[in-house]
Amino acid sequence: MTHRLTLVITALIPLLALGCTGSRSFPRADYVHGPIPHQARRTTDYSREAFWAPLNRTAYEALEHLPRRMSTDQDLVVREFGPPQWGREFESLEGEDVLEWLQVDQNRLFQFVEGELVFEGDIRDLEHTLLSHGVPDEVLYHVVDPGVERVTFIYSDVNRSSRAMYFDFSNGMMTFEERHP
Fold first, then answer.
1. Stretches in the chain below the pLDDT threshold 50
2. Domain locations along the chain
3. Mean pLDDT of the chain
4. How far apart are CA 28 and CA 48, in angstroms?
């Protein structure tokens, strides 16, 4: 019995070691919308960020200096587009640790997972709102259709008076805005 257990453990150790030390590969492309691949934009659970908003409203940090160590993809982005102006880190809905850079003057957004460029695209209204107003106080999610991400950001003033701002987004594009003085 002990010999058999030793054989099983001996056979499992290399498999576990490979699984623990092997690098994870993140898809650069998504085939959800047909046979033509497109990059998948990573998103976060904004309601989790809103929970911490009273402590820190900052959604993006101004990037004064480049990281000392950059991946090949990050270095290529900096060489082609210049140093990023704004950045943030978040956990995606899929559990990935995402580094997001914004180049506002060129309206470009770059997302990296473990240093690998996984998305490059335009900065949407949603990101512009986060950059301008910070993390919202409340976030509402709406299920409309598959493939349509509807999100509402609610900003209240510090004293919770009647002043508030509402922004509604569909796939990152603003569809409604209301401000109460």
1. 5, 7-8, 12, 15-25
2. 46-180
3. 81
4. 26
